[in-house]
Specification:
Number of helices of chain A: 3
Organism (chains A, B, C, D): Halorubrum tropicale
InterPro entries (chains A, B, C, D): HotDog_dom_sf (IPR029069)
CATH topology of chain A: Thiol Ester Dehydrase, Chain A
Radius of gyration of chain A: 16 Å
Order of helices and strands of chain A: EHHEEEEEEH
Protein name (chains A, B, C, D): Thioesterase
Oligomer: homotetramer
Chain lengths: ~130, ~130, ~130, ~130
């Protein structure tokens, strides 16, 4: 059962054709990952400040299938797939029953200071479990 | 009774000291004005597309009194003050009982295509009335 | 011979670890595509306003190989690959001799108003030719 | 003799009427302050990391006098006015001979960690002197 949030496309996101600028869509995706981490009780800032590691992005791939415009309510679903030392966030965005964009962020679990990838802590793995593809 | 929304400061809003970058605060203010216009039934895009006018900003003034950091929940209150051909949005942002920033956007009611300022339509004035300072 | 520009990472792009937020990197990539179109004499706004078509993005894929921080000078190279009805912009970003990120934007040549993909006009194809992979 | 830079308004800055979104103008202002600090040899990140203080913004005031659109070249001039424990950056933006916006950022010189305002170091004051109003 994926994590879902609704993104309302704003006037300030829209371009001369009335559709959302692509960098503003990326902002909405990034906000979704932030909301998800809060939801599971491990916000990005808590990992960083208190636990000394983070989940930096090593790859993104997104396909844009249909434009969205100011006023559209877009349901963005995030499904985590937890690997050994990495986590993939899969995204599907639906507006009016149509997929508007989908893709993923590949993240690694990495200590600050360049110590390289570490195993995803069990606590984080467990917190994501109920949102993972069943 | 002002319009209020809660802005959660995100990791991606924060700077090397962990506090929100000032342009990201402006994004949050702008989003608040957009949410308010939706709330009163006159979203910016509806004014623009269907009614041929807008509320462009002619002046902003903001005072930043205390920093906010990722994870903070900031209550941003918007109070409209409707003039003859102009509208001022007053903002007060509170976090943990402290004013973090406050200020205003001065907007004019203007036709597209450079026709100059027009009187604020009664329908829009009425829609804002219940949120105005009593 | 690719198109190149230098992106200076700004303080306002940087996160609590001093490295650039990923959405701000996307902004820099997008700015690069805009600069390229100006360079070849066909800015995005001219295509849109005067010629009735655009180059909307249908897919992006980026790999982030090394972080960049405020003050870094990043050379972003753009190499266009022109297809029949589509154009791919390949990006490689170098900082201090190291690839910091690389990837592509897949774009289609499309008329405004939903008329679907059209052939890339010869004039645009020719303008991009000297920047394409030889 | 003010510090000047040219800001090219990008397609991705523009709204459904083809004019720049106001938060994107703020981004351009902020970038200008960053470029100025690099120019005088005291980039924001150097102050922060090596010297333990910063120039946080305590007030902004901007008047928007004429819209700008994608493709416009806007000359943004920054004039510093150095006080005892504070610095004001005055901005004037000109496009095609017309003032498009003008205003200021009021900044304080403050130690990190909440130690309060400190005197502007002589070295910083001297570096700004030649750009100040004569």
């Amino acid at each position: 059962m994926s994590f879902e949030r609704t993104w309302t496309v704003r006037f300030s996101d829209s371009d001369p054709f009335g559709i959302a600028h692509y960098p503003r869509i990326i902002d909405a995706v990034h906000e979704t990952s932030d909301m998800f981490m809060v939801e599971i009780g491990h916000p990005f800032w808590e990992l960083s400040q208190d636990r000394g590691f983070g989940l930096p992005i090593v790859e993104v791939d997104f396909e844009f299938k249909a434009p969205v415009e100011a006023g559209n309510e877009v349901t963005i679903a995030l499904t985590p797939e937890v690997g050994d030392k990495s986590i993939r966030f899969d995204y599907t965005a639906i507006c009016d029953g149509t997929v508007t964009f989908e893709g993923y962020e590949q993240r690694v679990c990495a200590e600050h200071g360049g110590g390289g990838a570490i195993e995803v802590p069990d606590e984080l793995r467990d917190a994501m479990a109920s949102y993972a593809e069943g």
